[in-house]
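Late entry, written up from scratch paper. The run itself happened at the end of the previous shift, but nothing got recorded in the book at the time, so transcribing now.
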Amino acid sequence: MRKRPSAAETICDYPPLLSKARSRQAMNLLRSPETLNKAKRIIALKTGELRGAVLELVARVEDAARAGDWALVYDTTHEIRGLAGTAGLNATGRIANGLCHYLDTVARLGMVPDVPVASLHLDAIARSARTEDEAAQHGDAVAQQLAALVARKLAEIKDSATA
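Output as recorded:
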């Protein structure tokens, strides 16, 4: 009886779409200053739409938090984290990253998130996404303070788990 090929073996059976030379040429084109500048211009034209999408996600994550659906809070915050920077909302992305880290760690430990910690993050995410000037002025400080809070809370959780 013939052995069934593994997924890796099956993938290797397909011929490459581009030759090595064409692949290098395509990568050089993608990395070229002209291509990068064009991409920046296109993103700049879509910044308003991207920010609108972030605000929609903020509304969705607020609803999920009110419902206590922490899995949806995590998933939506993860989307905010990925999109916020592209939308020019760097503080929002950093704060969302901190909340993702906290929720992920708490979930892996089989615990429920501390509602005040999550609420502080969610309030900061919403405010930074809605008030661009304030976010630019205070966003880094808020993100750093929230990161310190997450680190302290996670250390407390780990200490209590080992005690």
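Residues 34 and 76 are 34 Å apart (CA to CA).
(Scratch paper discarded after transcription.)
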